[in-house]
Amino acid sequence: MSTPSPTLEDTTATCCSTGVEVPLSDARAAVLAHTYAAVADPVRLKLLSLIAAAGELCSCDMTDPLGKSQPTVSHHTKILSEAGLIVGDKRGRWVYWSVVPAQEAFVRQVLDA
Question: Can you give the pTM of this predicted structure?
Answer without folding.
Answer: 0.79
